[in-house]
Design brief:
mainly alpha; 304 residues; two-stranded antiparallel sheet; 73% helix; single chain
Length: 304
Protein backbone atom coordinates (compact mmCIF):
# COMPACT_ATOMS: atom_id res chain seq x y z
CA UNK A 1 0.00 0.00 0.00
CA UNK A 2 3.04 2.27 0.22
CA UNK A 3 3.98 3.53 -3.28
CA UNK A 4 7.43 4.61 -2.09
CA UNK A 5 8.15 1.15 -0.70
CA UNK A 6 7.04 -0.55 -3.92
CA UNK A 7 9.13 1.90 -5.95
CA UNK A 8 12.27 1.19 -3.90
CA UNK A 9 11.78 -2.59 -4.07
CA UNK A 10 11.39 -2.32 -7.85
CA UNK A 11 14.51 -0.14 -8.17
CA UNK A 12 16.61 -2.61 -6.15
CA UNK A 13 15.43 -5.54 -8.26
CA UNK A 14 16.00 -3.62 -11.50
CA UNK A 15 19.58 -2.70 -10.53
CA UNK A 16 20.33 -6.27 -9.44
CA UNK A 17 19.08 -7.69 -12.74
CA UNK A 18 20.86 -5.00 -14.81
CA UNK A 19 24.11 -5.52 -12.92
CA UNK A 20 23.91 -9.27 -13.36
CA UNK A 21 23.39 -8.84 -17.12
CA UNK A 22 26.22 -6.32 -17.50
CA UNK A 23 28.69 -8.39 -15.47
CA UNK A 24 27.45 -11.78 -16.72
CA UNK A 25 26.56 -12.87 -13.22
CA UNK A 26 29.59 -11.72 -11.22
CA UNK A 27 27.70 -8.68 -9.90
CA UNK A 28 25.54 -10.90 -7.70
CA UNK A 29 28.19 -13.34 -6.52
CA UNK A 30 28.85 -13.74 -2.78
CA UNK A 31 32.12 -11.78 -2.77
CA UNK A 32 30.66 -8.70 -4.46
CA UNK A 33 27.55 -8.72 -2.25
CA UNK A 34 29.80 -8.94 0.84
CA UNK A 35 31.85 -6.00 -0.45
CA UNK A 36 28.74 -3.87 -1.02
CA UNK A 37 27.33 -4.80 2.39
CA UNK A 38 30.60 -3.72 4.01
CA UNK A 39 30.51 -0.30 2.34
CA UNK A 40 26.85 0.45 3.05
CA UNK A 41 26.87 1.08 6.87
CA UNK A 42 28.86 4.33 6.81
CA UNK A 43 26.40 6.01 4.46
CA UNK A 44 23.39 4.34 6.05
CA UNK A 45 24.19 5.62 9.54
CA UNK A 46 24.69 9.17 8.28
CA UNK A 47 21.41 8.95 6.35
CA UNK A 48 19.54 7.87 9.50
CA UNK A 49 20.88 10.98 11.24
CA UNK A 50 19.65 13.17 8.37
CA UNK A 51 16.25 11.45 8.51
CA UNK A 52 15.85 12.09 12.23
CA UNK A 53 16.70 15.77 11.81
CA UNK A 54 14.34 16.15 8.84
CA UNK A 55 11.51 14.43 10.70
CA UNK A 56 11.68 17.07 13.43
CA UNK A 57 10.31 19.68 11.01
CA UNK A 58 11.04 23.41 10.84
CA UNK A 59 13.62 22.85 8.10
CA UNK A 60 15.53 20.39 10.27
CA UNK A 61 18.63 18.81 8.71
CA UNK A 62 22.08 17.72 9.83
CA UNK A 63 24.86 18.68 7.39
CA UNK A 64 27.66 17.99 9.86
CA UNK A 65 27.48 14.18 9.92
CA UNK A 66 30.55 13.17 7.91
CA UNK A 67 32.64 16.02 9.38
CA UNK A 68 31.72 14.86 12.89
CA UNK A 69 32.47 11.23 11.97
CA UNK A 70 35.93 12.26 10.75
CA UNK A 71 36.52 14.35 13.88
CA UNK A 72 35.50 11.39 16.06
CA UNK A 73 37.93 9.09 14.24
CA UNK A 74 40.83 11.56 14.31
CA UNK A 75 40.29 12.43 17.98
CA UNK A 76 40.10 8.76 18.98
CA UNK A 77 43.18 7.78 16.99
CA UNK A 78 45.30 10.56 18.50
CA UNK A 79 43.97 10.42 22.07
CA UNK A 80 43.89 6.66 22.59
CA UNK A 81 47.25 6.06 20.91
CA UNK A 82 48.84 8.46 23.41
CA UNK A 83 47.90 6.15 26.31
CA UNK A 84 47.44 2.65 24.92
CA UNK A 85 49.42 0.70 22.34
CA UNK A 86 47.32 -0.93 19.63
CA UNK A 87 49.92 -3.69 19.25
CA UNK A 88 50.40 -4.50 22.94
CA UNK A 89 46.81 -4.04 24.19
CA UNK A 90 44.54 -4.40 21.15
CA UNK A 91 41.36 -5.12 23.16
CA UNK A 92 41.81 -2.11 25.46
CA UNK A 93 42.73 0.07 22.48
CA UNK A 94 39.54 -0.97 20.68
CA UNK A 95 37.27 -0.35 23.69
CA UNK A 96 38.78 3.08 24.36
CA UNK A 97 38.72 3.99 20.67
CA UNK A 98 35.01 3.21 20.43
CA UNK A 99 34.24 5.03 23.69
CA UNK A 100 36.06 8.23 22.68
CA UNK A 101 34.52 8.25 19.19
CA UNK A 102 31.01 7.84 20.58
CA UNK A 103 31.59 10.58 23.17
CA UNK A 104 32.87 12.99 20.51
CA UNK A 105 29.94 12.17 18.23
CA UNK A 106 27.35 12.59 20.98
CA UNK A 107 28.94 15.85 22.17
CA UNK A 108 28.91 17.28 18.64
CA UNK A 109 25.28 16.27 18.12
CA UNK A 110 24.18 17.75 21.46
CA UNK A 111 26.01 20.98 20.56
CA UNK A 112 23.97 21.13 17.34
CA UNK A 113 20.77 20.51 19.30
CA UNK A 114 21.55 23.22 21.85
CA UNK A 115 22.33 25.79 19.18
CA UNK A 116 19.13 25.01 17.28
CA UNK A 117 16.75 24.51 20.22
CA UNK A 118 18.10 27.06 22.72
CA UNK A 119 19.41 29.81 20.45
CA UNK A 120 16.85 29.31 17.68
CA UNK A 121 19.42 29.02 14.89
CA UNK A 122 18.19 27.79 11.50
CA UNK A 123 19.19 24.09 11.31
CA UNK A 124 20.75 24.25 7.84
CA UNK A 125 22.93 27.26 8.77
CA UNK A 126 23.78 25.87 12.20
CA UNK A 127 24.89 22.46 10.97
CA UNK A 128 26.73 23.99 8.01
CA UNK A 129 28.66 26.10 10.50
CA UNK A 130 29.40 23.17 12.82
CA UNK A 131 30.42 21.11 9.79
CA UNK A 132 33.15 23.65 9.09
CA UNK A 133 34.00 23.80 12.80
CA UNK A 134 34.33 20.01 13.13
CA UNK A 135 36.44 19.85 9.97
CA UNK A 136 38.68 22.64 11.26
CA UNK A 137 39.14 20.90 14.61
CA UNK A 138 40.08 17.65 12.85
CA UNK A 139 42.63 19.52 10.71
CA UNK A 140 44.06 21.26 13.78
CA UNK A 141 44.36 18.02 15.74
CA UNK A 142 45.95 16.04 12.91
CA UNK A 143 47.97 18.85 11.37
CA UNK A 144 46.49 18.00 7.98
CA UNK A 145 47.90 14.55 7.09
CA UNK A 146 46.06 11.32 7.78
CA UNK A 147 46.40 9.74 11.22
CA UNK A 148 47.35 6.07 11.55
CA UNK A 149 44.78 4.12 13.53
CA UNK A 150 46.97 1.15 14.40
CA UNK A 151 46.55 -2.56 13.82
CA UNK A 152 44.34 -3.56 16.75
CA UNK A 153 42.78 -6.83 15.59
CA UNK A 154 39.42 -6.41 17.40
CA UNK A 155 38.93 -2.97 15.83
CA UNK A 156 39.91 -4.18 12.36
CA UNK A 157 37.56 -7.15 12.78
CA UNK A 158 34.60 -4.77 13.17
CA UNK A 159 35.20 -3.28 9.75
CA UNK A 160 36.48 -6.34 7.88
CA UNK A 161 35.22 -9.42 9.73
CA UNK A 162 32.35 -11.71 8.77
CA UNK A 163 29.71 -13.61 10.72
CA UNK A 164 28.16 -16.44 8.72
CA UNK A 165 29.33 -14.70 5.56
CA UNK A 166 27.80 -11.33 6.51
CA UNK A 167 30.06 -8.32 7.31
CA UNK A 168 30.03 -7.39 11.00
CA UNK A 169 29.70 -3.71 10.13
CA UNK A 170 26.53 -4.45 8.15
CA UNK A 171 25.06 -6.36 11.12
CA UNK A 172 25.81 -3.38 13.37
CA UNK A 173 24.07 -1.02 10.94
CA UNK A 174 21.11 -3.38 10.62
CA UNK A 175 20.73 -3.64 14.41
CA UNK A 176 20.86 0.15 14.82
CA UNK A 177 18.35 0.65 11.99
CA UNK A 178 15.92 -1.84 13.57
CA UNK A 179 16.23 -0.26 17.03
CA UNK A 180 15.71 3.29 15.78
CA UNK A 181 12.91 2.17 13.46
CA UNK A 182 11.10 0.54 16.39
CA UNK A 183 11.67 3.62 18.54
CA UNK A 184 10.20 5.87 15.84
CA UNK A 185 7.13 3.68 15.45
CA UNK A 186 6.37 2.56 19.00
CA UNK A 187 8.08 4.82 21.54
CA UNK A 188 6.97 8.23 22.87
CA UNK A 189 10.12 9.69 21.31
CA UNK A 190 9.04 8.73 17.79
CA UNK A 191 5.43 9.80 18.26
CA UNK A 192 6.47 13.18 19.62
CA UNK A 193 9.12 13.67 16.93
CA UNK A 194 6.62 13.12 14.11
CA UNK A 195 4.00 15.23 15.87
CA UNK A 196 6.45 18.10 16.19
CA UNK A 197 7.33 17.77 12.50
CA UNK A 198 3.69 17.57 11.42
CA UNK A 199 2.14 20.25 13.65
CA UNK A 200 4.48 22.31 15.86
CA UNK A 201 1.52 24.18 17.40
CA UNK A 202 -0.18 20.95 18.49
CA UNK A 203 3.17 19.68 19.80
CA UNK A 204 3.54 22.83 21.90
CA UNK A 205 0.25 22.07 23.66
CA UNK A 206 0.84 18.32 23.96
CA UNK A 207 2.73 18.63 27.22
CA UNK A 208 6.29 17.70 26.21
CA UNK A 209 9.39 19.83 25.77
CA UNK A 210 10.27 20.51 22.10
CA UNK A 211 13.66 21.80 23.27
CA UNK A 212 14.56 18.54 24.98
CA UNK A 213 13.25 16.56 22.00
CA UNK A 214 15.39 18.52 19.54
CA UNK A 215 18.50 18.13 21.68
CA UNK A 216 17.84 14.39 21.94
CA UNK A 217 17.27 14.10 18.18
CA UNK A 218 20.47 15.84 17.19
CA UNK A 219 22.32 14.03 19.98
CA UNK A 220 21.30 10.68 18.47
CA UNK A 221 22.31 11.94 15.04
CA UNK A 222 25.74 12.86 16.43
CA UNK A 223 26.04 9.47 18.15
CA UNK A 224 25.36 7.77 14.80
CA UNK A 225 28.13 9.89 13.28
CA UNK A 226 30.42 8.62 16.05
CA UNK A 227 29.52 5.02 15.15
CA UNK A 228 30.21 5.83 11.49
CA UNK A 229 33.61 7.21 12.56
CA UNK A 230 34.41 3.90 14.26
CA UNK A 231 33.41 1.92 11.15
CA UNK A 232 35.46 4.21 8.89
CA UNK A 233 38.51 3.74 11.11
CA UNK A 234 37.99 -0.02 11.33
CA UNK A 235 37.88 -0.38 7.54
CA UNK A 236 40.96 1.76 6.85
CA UNK A 237 44.48 1.93 8.18
CA UNK A 238 44.24 5.71 8.50
CA UNK A 239 41.64 8.35 9.36
CA UNK A 240 41.63 11.82 7.83
CA UNK A 241 39.64 15.02 8.12
CA UNK A 242 38.49 14.98 4.47
CA UNK A 243 37.34 11.37 4.17
CA UNK A 244 34.05 10.87 2.30
CA UNK A 245 33.58 14.37 0.91
CA UNK A 246 30.63 13.22 -1.22
CA UNK A 247 28.95 11.35 1.67
CA UNK A 248 26.83 14.33 2.71
CA UNK A 249 25.20 14.61 -0.71
CA UNK A 250 24.58 10.86 -0.87
CA UNK A 251 23.15 10.73 2.68
CA UNK A 252 20.66 13.47 1.78
CA UNK A 253 19.85 11.68 -1.48
CA UNK A 254 19.19 8.41 0.40
CA UNK A 255 16.87 10.24 2.79
CA UNK A 256 14.92 12.03 0.07
CA UNK A 257 14.59 8.85 -2.03
CA UNK A 258 13.24 7.11 1.08
CA UNK A 259 10.28 9.47 1.02
CA UNK A 260 11.23 11.46 4.11
CA UNK A 261 9.46 14.78 3.90
CA UNK A 262 11.79 17.82 4.09
CA UNK A 263 9.04 19.70 5.94
CA UNK A 264 9.06 16.99 8.62
CA UNK A 265 6.59 14.63 10.21
CA UNK A 266 7.32 11.42 8.31
CA UNK A 267 10.09 8.86 7.96
CA UNK A 268 10.07 5.10 7.44
CA UNK A 269 13.17 3.05 8.28
CA UNK A 270 12.36 0.25 5.84
CA UNK A 271 12.27 2.74 2.97
CA UNK A 272 15.52 4.34 4.13
CA UNK A 273 17.23 0.94 4.22
CA UNK A 274 16.03 0.09 0.71
CA UNK A 275 17.03 3.54 -0.55
CA UNK A 276 20.55 3.05 0.84
CA UNK A 277 20.87 -0.40 -0.74
CA UNK A 278 19.63 0.95 -4.08
CA UNK A 279 22.31 3.64 -4.20
CA UNK A 280 25.01 1.21 -3.09
CA UNK A 281 23.96 -1.27 -5.77
CA UNK A 282 23.88 1.50 -8.38
CA UNK A 283 27.33 2.71 -7.37
CA UNK A 284 28.77 -0.80 -7.66
CA UNK A 285 27.03 -1.36 -11.00
CA UNK A 286 28.60 1.84 -12.39
CA UNK A 287 31.98 0.52 -11.26
CA UNK A 288 31.32 -2.75 -13.08
CA UNK A 289 30.42 -0.72 -16.17
CA UNK A 290 33.80 1.07 -15.82
CA UNK A 291 32.18 4.50 -15.50
CA UNK A 292 34.25 7.26 -13.87
CA UNK A 293 33.65 8.10 -10.20
CA UNK A 294 33.41 11.75 -11.20
CA UNK A 295 30.40 10.95 -13.38
CA UNK A 296 28.88 9.00 -10.48
CA UNK A 297 29.02 12.08 -8.21
CA UNK A 298 27.47 14.11 -11.03
CA UNK A 299 24.72 11.50 -11.36
CA UNK A 300 23.98 11.71 -7.61
CA UNK A 301 23.57 15.48 -7.90
CA UNK A 302 21.27 15.20 -10.92
CA UNK A 303 19.18 12.53 -9.19
CA UNK A 304 18.83 14.63 -6.03
Amino acid sequence: RDPQLLFLISINLLILVSGAVISRGTFVDAYNLQSMAGQLPELGLLAIGVMLAMSSGNGGIDLSGIALANLAGVTSAITVAAFVSADQSPAMFTVLFIAVALLVGAAGGIANGLLIARLGLTPILCTLGTQLLFTGLAVALSGGPSVRVGSADPLMEIGNGLVLGVPISFLIFLAIAVLIGMALKFSPFGIRLFLMGTNPTAARYAGFSPVRLLITTYGISGLLAGVAGVLIASRNVNVKWDYGQSYLLIAILITVMAGVKPEGGYGRMTCLFLSATALQLLSSMLNFADISNFFRDCAWGLLL
